[in-house]
Automatic annotation (TrEMBL):
One of the record's GO cellular component terms: apical plasma membrane
Main location group: membrane
Subcellular location: Apical cell membrane; Endosome membrane
Signal peptide: 1-22
Domain Zinc transporter ZIP4/12 EF-hand: 197-309
This protein's record includes keyword Zinc: yes
Keywords: Cell membrane, Endosome, Ion transport, Membrane, Metal-binding, Signal, Transmembrane, Transmembrane helix, Transport, Zinc, Zinc transport
Organism: Gulo gulo (Wolverine)
Protein name: Zinc transporter ZIP4 N-terminal domain-containing protein
Amino acid sequence: MPGLVRLPLGLLLASLLGTVTAARPPRLLPLLSSGRGALGRAALGSLLNTLADRVHCADGPCGKALALRRPEKPGLASGPVLEHRHLSRLSAAAALYLSDPKGTCADVRAGHWATRADHLLALLEGPKALTPGLSRLLQKIRAQAAGWPAAEKACADLPQLLEKAEGAGAPSSPGLVLAALVDHVSSGSCLRALPTPQYFVDFVFRQHSGETPNITLAELEALMQRLGVGGVAETPGDHSDHGHLRNGADHQGPVPLATLNSSSSLWDTVCLSAEEVMAVYGLSDQAGVTPESWAQLSPALLQQQLSGACSPQPRAPPRDELSQAERYLYGSLATLLVCLCAISGLLLLSCASYSTASHYIIQTFLSMAVGALTGDAILHLTPKV
């Protein structure tokens, strides 16, 4: 396994030494989803050089730190092709470089780049870990994107990356999602780590099922009662309508997942922090929220309340990992231990010839018996509060 971890790292580093650059960097997602793709040295060098051009550090180009002076070093044997089984690791390593170029350069010098890539793939494994993990990764990449060149294409967000992976046949595969991420960056597209401000308004308007595009009075009253604000206006001769409104207001079912566009449903379950909400609207942490900005920010707070994304999730009860046979075994051992302690009372017969010793021993056991019975009686008679 150590050799397997170090081999693709040697290929990555050695490829950066080449001066050949392809006209267009290769796309990793089609190669990875096909199950039989591979990267040549020229294509791999073109991809990494393109990613290095997208990253700009304040103290110099970060890609220069990825050069390896001794590609022939034992354990880092170079080859003409990067096989399909290493493409997921390549995607994770490239994503790490985009999110933290300086830290990746330090990992390269220490020989830990491939290990970090494997660790990232392991962290994103599973549907419950994939979405929050990718969201944090995109935020780190966005933080580095301040010095990137202007994007040539529209920005891609997390739902679009997951949709790309789903189209490739594996929606929960971290390797495919990271490959789609690298393809977007290498093609000149920017990344969006948070939803757009319009999403929060769309979410609120998705709560009603009316045919009109506007929220009606009945729907507004139901929405206000769900939020626990406002009162119910009663007018004479309007009891039937009022009862209908009350029934609609009392409906506390789950938030519908029908969306106005394909990228809305994913954010319905994401709990955003205060810093992330301000970042959605482009508000500075130092300047804070102005009265004018508060009117724009209110739909985000309303959406978080309606979606229940920040509500505490019930914890699953701990599972009993003991099998049926193990339960019987441990129960029998406990019963045997209690019986052995009772049989130990036969040892008192050996002390019967010593009247002085047997007297104190019997008094001791009598005291213990009285104390145990008294304590048990007190515990049973004490009322429970």
